[in-house]
Design goal:
The protein has 14 helices and four strands. A hairpin with a 7-residue loop joins strand 3 and strand 4. By secondary structure, the protein is mostly helical. It is globular, with a radius of gyration of 22 Å. It is 67% helix and 5% strand.
Length: 329
Amino acid sequence: MWLQIRLYLLIGILFAIMYGILSIIGALMGGSGLYFYLYLFFIAVSLVAIQYMIGPKMVEITMRVRYVDREEYPELHKMIEELSAKADIPKPKVGISKLQIPNAFAFGRTKRDARVCVTEGLLNLLNEEELRAVLGHEISHIKHRDVFVITTLSVVPTICYMLYLSFFWGGIFYRRREGGAIALIGLIAFAVYLITSLLVMYGSRIREYYADMGSVELGNKPSWLATALYKLVYSSAHVDRRVVKQIAGIKPFFINDPTTSMSEVRELREIDLNLDGMIDENELLMLSTKRVKLSGVERALEIMSSHPNVIKRIKHLAELSTETKIYGA
């Protein structure tokens, strides 16, 4: 419930910010230009809508997705079919990505248009239980309409950026005395754009927690997903950094952020107490009683990321594990 409350508050804050900056600009401009603001809003929504419509094809091309049938990957199809039935959504299309980094992702415009894909490396890295937990996470993204939610939220920073371009550069080339004031409005819009972009990333992190919880609700043990995240971080840390940089633009689709794996791998050693490469129930139980403290650098990395810090994320899974034991789930 607290995740939903945070998301609803975030949506309210973002659109309140947008309303506020448009109102301030309108007042500074003498209340004129209503149609200009409506025009900006229309253009911004149109740009996001176009992105929403062509997004799946762009993801397919960028991630080199090949859709596979049941005969080729029977176990993968079976898992996705069972999880989809539990989530009460249509079975998504199943794809394999040629990306070198082990990972999984879901995308699509609607529940009926959804696709779940895994990289070839992921199939070789995880066991059946861990893979099932990861797929449950991706199915939960589809169930919660996360692509639509994040796309809708991104309207606000898009509008702020368009205001920045219109006012800042318009003010610079404006010959009258008012040019400086107009450029200042543009700078304010740019500052708000940066703030709202960070808020959208915060919303993305909330959705990741929510999808983790959704995977557990679909019958997967928190320790399965925790171990899968552990393995993904370690694997990503050993991937060529040049490859990691190449996929930086598409990392929001992944189940974890490969670009932060180098810093996160050091933290994970403190959780795997017996160093067996897994996060078992006992290790989760011990983590649930600890307070996670991040360094300044780690907090900064998380703020700039679309994914939560992996230790905080596994801590959340530890709390879910404790709750399922208490309620006998």
